[in-house]
Amino acid sequence: MLPLSGERTDAKGIIKNASDSGDILRGTSTLKRGGAHMLKNGVVMDVTTVEQAQIAEDAGAVSVMVLDKLPSDVRKAGGVARTASIRIIEDIMDSVTIPVMAKCRIGHVYEAKVLEETNVDMIDESEVLTPADENHHIWKWDFTTPFVNGARSLSEALRRIEEGAAMIRTKGEPGTGNVAEAVTHIKKVNDELRSIKAIYDSGDKQDLVRMAREFKVSYDIVEETAKLGRLPVVNFAAGGIATPADAAYLMSLGCDGIFVGSGIFNANDAKERARAIVLATTFWNESEKVKEAQKMIDERQSMLGLDVKTLELRMQERGSSA
Amino acid sequence: MSLTVGVLAIQGDVHENIISTETALKELGVEGTVVGVKTAEDVSKLDGLIIPGGESTTIGQLSLVNSSLKTIKEKIEHGMPVLGICAGMILLSKTSNDRIIGKTDQPLLDLLDIKLERNSFGRQKESFEADVPMNSINIPKFNGVFIRAPSVSDVGSGVEILAKFNEKIVAVKKGNMMCVAFHPELTEDVSLHKYFVNLIKKSKI
Predict the structure, then answer these.
(1) Beta carbons within 10 angstroms of residue A3's beta carbon
(2) Pairing with A226, which of A122, A197, A203, B56 sits 20 to 30 Å away (CA)?
């Protein structure tokens, strides 16, 4: 069964309906977190067109994420990045059988409502877009559609889960083709999980209270997470993944799956690369298979990539303090 | 006698099924181990297999890669019990159509004579929990967790219907094969996993 720590049974997003075969419930934590569980060990690919979405599905992606521009192009274009065109999202929903996600701005309740009305399968409240509210994220319990949020630390992840996120991903540094930040974030979350687990195992409740204060979340979610020794929701890697070896490395660090943003469709060998990243994610613990996957791509076709130290815009910092 | 039960570990909610099956073995007092399986060699050692929920297009394509799909098919044809859950139900079927997109050419095991409709109850937002009684296998009350679930629109001869929801068929069985459109591994109730363990036990005698 699913860990459900931090869930709110009074959430507005839970809908009770009568049907011929008895009462039905929609929007429960089991359904939202369960939906994310079905993506485990899979790759979610950023796409901007129907054609890209079909390439992703044929490559074995578990889901596609629809954006107006790929993160690296958002970086180049500057200006305000908003949610994608509804018509393009609908066209993609009509052309693939896998779940379709879309991004809304951090704190932008009505972009999220529009996406829920469009009937996307999951909403990503994303730092890749320009935040609409620096101080508040969306209260995701008001929605029947599940949300995924980015996090760079355990405290950020737990704050998002307490707001109703059904899935977490590392932030990494989007649109850079540089996996370093995603690696740092997942290692930090893992270290923090190990330390609260150790506190839980030692039976020191006072120290857990101290952690809850430090994380700015309730004691209950800290205690349950500490007991589990992992996040109570699925945790994917995201931000800067560009090659099969990148994907396999993050899986080996304990991620439940992979998001690939600019890495596929900004490369010149998108079709082969999409397939290769799926293979490396599935068979990450078989070096031979990861090598075969890596051989399918040509490093000269990879996106150029950016050194994170030289960036003027650090997307990962958006919404982190709230 | 010790049973080896496998959960196909290509993609999807593998871990939850391992836990549910371990609990079922324990509650029944049946000796056995539960393992995640990926390769044809892993599959060949099993007494029973669960194909879990996930994305059927992904699981199908990737189990073709290492030929585990072929071994699974042969083992089932030789009588190994199999439980297909959601995506697993789709993979076991002979024909699968998407409710919106229609015919798809995804790889299927092509074993169970049922006609599948993918995403039959709608998308994630329309996913639901409801009570699904399965009286013919002595499970009178069961919380069905339906996530972008398929349903069976038609069954061939000899396929037993275990449950319907709003006139749509959501659980079926034929001999050593059974499938459900909902997710028993996402609930605390292990009665369906227990029923499956007993099916494996009987197949060994």
Answers:
(1) 16
(2) A122
**Does residue A2 belong to any structural domain of this protein?**
no
Judge whether A25 lies within some domain: yes
- With respect to residue A311, please indicate whether it lies within any of the assigned structural domains: no
Domain count, chain A: 1
Q: What phi, psi does A278 have (nearest 5°)?
A: -65, -45
Please report, in tens digits, the pLDDT of each residue of chain B (205 residues total): 899 999 999 999 999 999 999 999 999 999 999 999 999 999 999 999 999 999 999 999 898 887 889 999 999 999 999 999 999 999 999 988 888 777 777 889 999 999 999 999 999 999 999 999 999 999 999 999 999 999 999 999 999 999 999 999 999 999 999 999 999 999 999 999 999 999 999 998 7
What pLDDT does A301 receive? 86
Does the residue A313 lie in any domain?
no
| Residues of B annotated catalytic, as ranges | 86, 183, 185
Find the CB nearest B129 among A31, A63, A146: A31
Q: Check CB contact under 8 Å for B13 and A40.
A: yes
The residue ranges of every structural domain in chain B are 3-204
pLDDT tens per residue across span A147-168? 999 999 999 999 999 999 999 9
Mean pLDDT for the stretch of residues A247-271: 95
User: Residue A311, Cβ neighbours under 10 Å: how many?
Assistant: 15
ipTM (interface predicted TM): 0.95
Closest by Cα among A36, A37, A29 to A13: A29
d(CA B5, CA B48): 5
What is the chain B residue with the closest CA to A32? B124
- Give me the phi and psi of A179, to 5 degrees please: -85, -5
Neighbouring-strand partners of residue A169: A150, A236
Taking the CA of residue A152 and the nearest CA in chain B, the distance in Å comes to 25
Residue A102: give the domain boundaries: 15-306
Q: How many CB atoms lie within 10 A of CB A10?
A: 6
Amino acid at B79: G
The percentage of residues in chain A with a pLDDT greater than 70, rounded to a whole number, is 100
| CATH code of domain B3-204 | 3.40.50.880
Q: What is the CATH number of the domain that holds A291?
A: 3.20.20.70
Q: Within an 8 Å CB–CB cutoff, is residue B149 touching chain A?
A: no
